[in-house]
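User: My instructor asked us to take a sequence, write out its structure as tokens, and then describe one feature of it. I'm not sure where to start. Here is the sequence I was given:
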Amino acid sequence: MSMTRPSRRDILSMAVAAPTLLLPATARAQALGATAAGNPQHFSFTLGAAKLTVVSDGWLETPAAHLGVNVDPRDVARFLQSYFLSVDTNVAHTNHLVIEIGEAVVLVDAGSGGRFMPTAGKLMGNLAAAGIDPQTITHVVITHAHPDHIWGVRDATGGAVLPQANHFVSGGEHQFWLQDGLAAGLSDDMKRIAEGAAEALQTDGIDWTLLHNDQEVVPGVRIIDTPGHTPGHISVVIESEGKQLIALGDAINHAYMNFAHPDWVNSFDMNPEATVDTRLRLLDMASRDRMAVLGYHFPFPGVGHVRKSGDAYQFIPALWQWTG
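Assistant: Let's start with the prediction itself. The structure tokens for your sequence are:
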């Protein structure tokens, strides 16, 4: 596999220049719709003695042209078409993890709070539907400060949505988004993201604990540095009775493209070279050690395993058990 390592300037330029591709209707993805009654937006399973529940915040829709911006757009379109995916719109689910382990109830990421895209912001209601009282959450771990992961810590009045919980973010992420003058010179969209991150990190009622690599949040739950998508991005490792799962956050963003072509980067990966390095490290670790993974933007519920195939990888969805 050839490893293309574009600079951040390269990737931003390519994202702007990426053309809209038109394929015949017969080549486009076929969408399967929901029923009028909707579908469950939570799924629970066990990992050793821990109970894990994936809870949705909704979904995001972004231009598919933001995917694989360091390669020929025609190659990206052919890849998406081969996986029955739209070449126009990337639909990304938002899979939050609630970890019930010992006396702790740990929420990984806080969603967008309904202030980012109209299709998202459903986390609090879906937690209640899953039988999880949000006020029982003891710890909130933020993988990174993009809108769909952190804006939900803050309510409409500027206060904490979960004031009873201890809040955690990496020291590097905290420092990056709160640096003086960050928003100056950014595009309007990026300025909104930077300002929103700073607001969330300065929410009234939240006293952030700043994490470092391999630090334990509670027994059985620790974080690892996975930079690239953002400078201080972290992933969360859960271990119980010899079994492990990694909540990837956005370190691996696409359940098919980032596995088959880990060197293809997206316009929203802030440091392309670090993104690829981190992605390969995670894929190697998960496949070698047979660790389960949860992808935040994978098709719900987003849990499975990593299979190495030559120089590439495959995401293998977990085989669920409905009874104990």
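For the description part of your assignment, you could build on this observation: The chain has one domain: 42-317. Try explaining in your own words what that tells you about the chain.
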